[in-house]
Amino acid sequence: MHELHDAPLAPLTTFRLGGPARRLLTATTDDEVVAAVRQADDTGTPLLIVGGGSNLVIGDKGFDGTALRIATTGFQLTGTRLELAAGEVWTDAATRTVAAGLAGIECLVGIPGSAGATPIQNVGAYGQEVSATVTEVVAYDRRLRETVTLANADCAFTYRHSVFKEHPDRYVVLRVRFDLEDAEGLSAPIKYAETARSLGVEPGERAELDAVRRTVLALRAGKGMVLDPDDHDTWSAGSFFTNPILDADAYGTFLDRVRDRLGADAAPPAYPAGDGRTKTSAAWLIDKAGFTKGYGSGPARISTKHTLALTNRGEASTADLLALAREVVAGVESAFGVTLVNEPVTVGVSL
């Protein structure tokens, strides 16, 4: 296991922000991961798990403890069953399933980060979420001090949430297992309207797998959501805020605020979210509150391609980023009475 002291963490994140860790360990096997976690727990040392770094906002002071970078590898495909080590690069693994002719995660290509992070956040995009195909998650349970296997139902998946996110100090994901679909070279039914339009199919229809992969990558790239070291619009955590889900009363109040501000005919995006709730668009809220693409004059700004991405223009600090995030949250709340919630995990800081 590789060990560094006073180690920079910014290069391990897609924001390229944050101070150093007192100690950085890089584990390449499950046994090394478990040993490092146990050592931290036995000594009472604060522990930060780092995967692909695409969902982390680390404070400028860094992390006064042990950062454990999970760099395990393993891609095992048996029929339609897929097992990924937590450290596998997610988009590479998703691309390999497309090449194998299997459907189920083809709309999730281009998402930065590691495979082990996907069940934590219930990663989703363009009408797919990993919860639809995950069968089991193998994790180290820090409370029981043993490796456990959680079935899909035990993961308690909801929108951008899971039991792993609910209890961040309990589980360390080691492996993720999926059951994909052999649809004879076709994708899963296309659910997202934008994807369907780009493919020239109707929602609910299937399309050629690789065409879906290429279409999704093009859509993501057009929004600055595919990592490019030369493009500061991609120096982000992707979507910085989750889409708000409102109960019936809150949604009614929200509609009143929308019409007061934008006119009687204004109609915000609305999607059924179960139990009488409605999901609306954080990107729409941000834009209509006056934070348009490219907003900001400092080193942290809204992406020029997508209002939902906050970006580091190259010289930003975490403090700069959080100042912008707080400005957006306050502006949306003032305009529409809706409080945005950050999607990335914050370390040593908060909104």
Please, could you describe this protein's structure?
With 351 residues, this protein is α+β, with helices and mostly antiparallel strands. It contains 9 helices and 18 strands. The strands form 6 sheets. The protein has a 5-stranded antiparallel sheet with strand order 6-7-12-10-11. The chain is globular. The chain starts with a strand and ends with a strand. The model has no long low-confidence stretch (mean pLDDT 96).
Largest sheet: 5 strands, antiparallel
- Residue share in β-strands: 15-25%
Question: How big is the Rg?
Answer: 20 Å
Number of helices: 9
Element pattern in H and E = EEHEEEEEHHEEEEHEHHEHEEHEEHE
Number of strands: 18
Overall residue-averaged pLDDT value = 96
Low-confidence stretches: none
Structural class: alpha+beta
Shape annotation:
globular
Distance between the termini: 34 Å
The proportion of residues forming helix, as a percent range, comes to: 25-40%
Strand order of the largest sheet: 6-7-12-10-11
Question: Which terms would index this structure?
Answer:
351 residues, 4-stranded mixed sheet, alpha+beta, 23% strand, 9 helices
Mind sketching the topology for me?
Blueprint: E1 2-8, E2 20-27, H1 30-43, E3 47-50, E4 56-58, E5 63-70, E6 75-78, E7 81-85, H2 90-99, H3 118-121, E8 124-125, E9 128-129, E10 134-141, E11 146-151, H4 163-166, E12 171-179, H5 193-199, H6 209-222, E13 245-246, H7 248-262, E14 271-272, E15 278-279, H8 282-288, E16 300-302, E17 310-312, H9 318-336, E18 345-347
Parallel strand pairs: 2-5, 3-5, 4-18
Antiparallel strand pairs: 1-2, 6-7, 7-12, 8-9, 10-11, 10-12, 13-15, 14-15, 16-17
